[in-house]
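#onboarding

Welcome to the new folks! Below is a worked example of what a typical request in this channel looks like: someone posts a single protein sequence, and someone else replies with the predicted structure as tokens. Don't worry about understanding the tokens yet, we'll cover that in week two.

Example request:
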Amino acid sequence: MKKFIGVALLAGSILFTSALYAQSIDGVVTGIKNGNAVQVTDNAGANFSLTIMDKSNNYSKTEAQQAIKDFFTKNSVKGFEVKHKGNSPNGQYAIGTLSTGSGNYRVNIFMKKEGSKEVIKELRFQLIE
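Example response:
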């Protein structure tokens, strides 16, 4: 009986942890590291500001997902290193360097509180020259 309770508690802990993970900046960071647009936009509200190089616009979650997917397809991800991460009164933010097959990009992630979770407010990919 003890083993069953331990497994149930562990499974509940994993579900709770993954639910928190999906609602934080860490989910966005992991999505970028994996070059996975779906994982990045899992942490988005209905729309947000997306900048890829010199093209900037407010996109719906679906449009942003496609734009990020196209970016990852053209720029195969080799790695992503978070250089700075912090909190502001409105949510979390992170700045990092994305290494791709076609160059390095500075990535800025800004989250905002929306209800009980944080969602992407702004995401920028800017080529480092």
